[in-house]
Amino acid sequence: MFPSSCFRAVEKSQTLVINEQSRQLEASGREVFKFGFGQSPFPPLPAAVAELQAQAHQKAYAPTQGIPELREAVAAFHRDAENLDVTAEQVIVGSGSKILIYAAMAAFTHADVLIPAPAWVSYVPQAKLLGHTPIRVVSHFEGRWRMTPEALLASIAQKENPSTPSILIFNHPGNPDGLCYTDEELTELASVMRANNILAISDEIYGLLHHTGGHKSLALFYPEGTIVTGGLSKWCGAGGWRLGVALLPRSLGVGESEFKNVMTGISSETYSCAPLPIQLAAVKAYHWQSPELQVYLRHQRKLISFLGTWCAKTLRDEAGIRVHTPQGGFYLFIDFTPFQDLLVQKHKFASSGAMCQALLVDTGVAVLPANAFGMDNDYMAARLAFVEFNGADALAAAAKLGDDV
Ligand code: PLP
User: Fold this and answer.
1) Is this complex's ipTM strictly greater than 0.95?
2) Residue 395 domain flag
3) 147 with 77, same domain?
4) Which candidate among 33, 43, 221, 319 keeps its CA 20 to 30 Å from the CA of 107?
């Protein structure tokens, strides 16, 4: 009916391509090892599940910014757990952190969005959907995929118009590389951000899954310019509940600030609010002093830390793959560049996408290609999510072992 030139160009997500291909293979009777999808293997926190069941009858619309008791709980949680100076007024609750990242970017009519590579699959498409200009911040395997102050400055130098606002997407612990930054690195990066008047969106959705529990928010180092995003999807094993939070810096998050109004306006005019029963359940999850929560997090961290270290070592030692031991989250960025000649010249793979599709068909192993994470097409790497295990059983076994886990 309409010519395709009427539609916006949105590339098909590699996650969907690989998932669809996995489904087809399984339907044909093949065993598929699903290391592609980034879903927590752990069940949601029992106290939150019990509350959700108790609140299932709640049917009212909730306030767009989030119910006050949840915003209070989220602010207290981040004060206690991370020493952030945040109040309920600065908290926005949404249907997942993805839409909150989008809403924060959407507050600008036009912006340059500085996005690390590799980085999570949705940042670049979100920036493009909004008509912003994505600019890559380059990092390397040898530098453990870290964004350096020099790389950040180099990306700022690529801006066509210095007066266009700059947004930096920051993500740690990192997806796809499991990277966490040190205090010193955060301090140095913050000073570049400050000097260049950058608004940082710090995606800290894996913060509580820092393997040693030592997560430090960028907002500690750059409080005036950082929006922190997070939510229940990863540490609380509840991606499908769609509960995300954004912590606005004080200047943007108080009273009727224009920025806060745009962000809540986008929610209000699209999905309205995060569902009320989920918000009430989240109040129980966001309770830092709860001994149940502490054990739940400690056991998750020990399990994924052990598995991540083991997987990385085994891939390095047994298969010669280049990979760093993750420091947080549940991903490995596996780098096949030592086999580049074999992959490109012999197998004729034109892209990491083609390589991952062949890997899936030939071996049943599903991983996501590096080009989905912003790397050049011919950079032969992939993200492996080491979450293909029964998290409920693993947590139950860990509970029996207690602190010996
Ligand atoms: N940020 C990163 C780095 C992620 O990996 C994901 C989910 O995979 C999200 C954000 C989305 O989180 P949410 O479920 O809160 O929208």
Assistant:
1) yes
2) yes
3) yes
4) 221
